Amino acid sequence: MKISEAAAASGCHLETIRYYERIGLLSKAARRDNGYRDYTSAEVERLRFITRGRELGFSLEEIQSLLALAEQTDMSCADVDRLARKHLVDIQGRIQALQRMAQELAHTIEACAGGARARCAILGDLQASADRSASIRSVASKDPAHRGRKSGCRPMSSVE
């Protein structure tokens, strides 16, 4: 089937299919006499696997590992389980970070009186954060104990 048909059947955009071929996640499709790519049903299934993995938030590297594990039918699923559990922990961490950001933004919005822009609490909080970051960077650049650290952003654990 042509790339447009493979895209429709797999739910993967055709430019993304070309990208997956370039990076080796999908083997280069055979070409027809007219030069069009010709995808097999197995390649479309692989694209569905990749697409579903991306929907679940797996990185391309993780998907490559999962594909390799899927092709080794004699292996136990312990490696797949380990990778999925690690990914779940990563997702849960991102959810917690997003919840903290949402709480901070909600507090900032509640502090906004809706008056003049010069007294806007939202803009003031963003400016204060930028000023704190600049101050931290300035102190860190002078303090040998802070050299080499990536500073300037508050860790999410200190936000609230």
Would you mind describing this structure in some detail?
There is one protein chain. It is built from six helices and two strands, in the order H-H-E-E-H-H-H-H. It has 160 residues and is mainly α. It has a two-stranded antiparallel sheet. The C terminus is likely disordered.
Brief sketch in words of this structure:
The protein folds into two domains: 3-63, Multidrug-efflux Transporter Regulator, Chain: A, Domain 2 (Orthogonal Bundle), CATH 1.10.1660; 101-160, no CATH class. The protein contains six helices and two strands, in the order ααββαααα. The protein has helices at 3-10, 14-23, 41-55, 60-71, 78-111, 121-142; strands at 30-31, 37-38.
Give a quick set of tags describing it.
single chain, 160 residues, mainly alpha, Multidrug-efflux Transporter Regulator, Chain: A, Domain 2, 2 strands, 63% helix, elongated
